[in-house]
Amino acid sequence: MxxxxxxxxxxxxxxxxxxITMIVEAGQGxxxxxxxxxxxxxxxxxxxxxxxxxxxxxxxRDRFVMSKGHCTGALYTALAGAGFFPEExxxxxxxPESRLNGHPNRTYLPGVETNTGPLGHGLPVAVxxxxxxxxxxxxxxxxxxxxxxxxxxGSMWEAAMFAGHRGLGQLTVIVDRNRLQQGASxxxxxxxxxxxxxxxxxxxxVAEVDGHDAAALLTAFDAACQPRSRPLCIIAxxxxxxxxxxxxxxxxxxxxxxxxxxxxxxxxELEAEMAA
Length: 276
What we know:
single chain, alpha/beta, Rossmann fold, two-stranded antiparallel sheet, 9 helices, 43% helix, globular
C-alpha cells in the first residue's frame, strides 16, 4: 500500500502543477474544482481503473464518467499521464482546433466515455452503462465523479433512484464534496445535508472519506471493486482549490486565471509539497 500511496500522491502533485500551467497559458479554466478533484482522479487513473490506452474502446475496460465536465484540467492531465495521448498536447488546452475542449468530447479524445458539461448528465449516462453491464453479465466497473453542486439537478436523483432499484453493484459514484459551487456554498444555495442519508434512502451503500488522503481513497476504491449487490456512493470531503493557499475554500476560484505573482506562488507551494 505504501508504494501505491506514494505513486498516487506524486501523480496528483504533477497533475496540479500541470493543470495550473495549462490554465495560465490558456487564459481560462476552472482551477478550484480541478484541484479539489485531482487526488480522486489520480487514484482512479493511476491505480484503480482497468484500461489499455492503446485500445481505449476495449469492451472489458472499466468506465469512468466525468460528470462535473467543466473540470477538464484534472481529467486531461490524467488521460495524458496514463498514455491516452501525448503529454505535449496539453499545451493546446482550450486553444483553437485543440482536442482539449473546455468540456470533454468523446468524438475527439480517446479515453473520454461520454460528453459532459451541462450538469446532471453524467450520472444518468453512467447508470445506463452499468445497466448494460448488468444485462450482459460483464465484469467491468463504472465510476462517475460528480460535483456536490451538481446534486441540485433532479436528473441526478432520478438516476440514483433507478440505480438503487436495479441493484447496480458495479456502479460507484464519487461526490467531490468541496461544499462550494459557482458563487456560493452549496448549503446556502440549496442545502444537501444529510447527504449520506439521502443516498442510503435510494438504496445505496455509502462511504465517507478525506478526498485528499491517498490511503483513504485507495481503501475506499479497493472496497468498491469487490462484488456488491448495491451501488456505492463515496462522499469525498475535499477543499475547492486544494494545494494552492489563495484558492482554498474560495468560491471565486470556481473559474479564473492566476496572475503572474499568483502563478509563481502556486507553483512554489506545489513544488514544496512535492519535496516534503
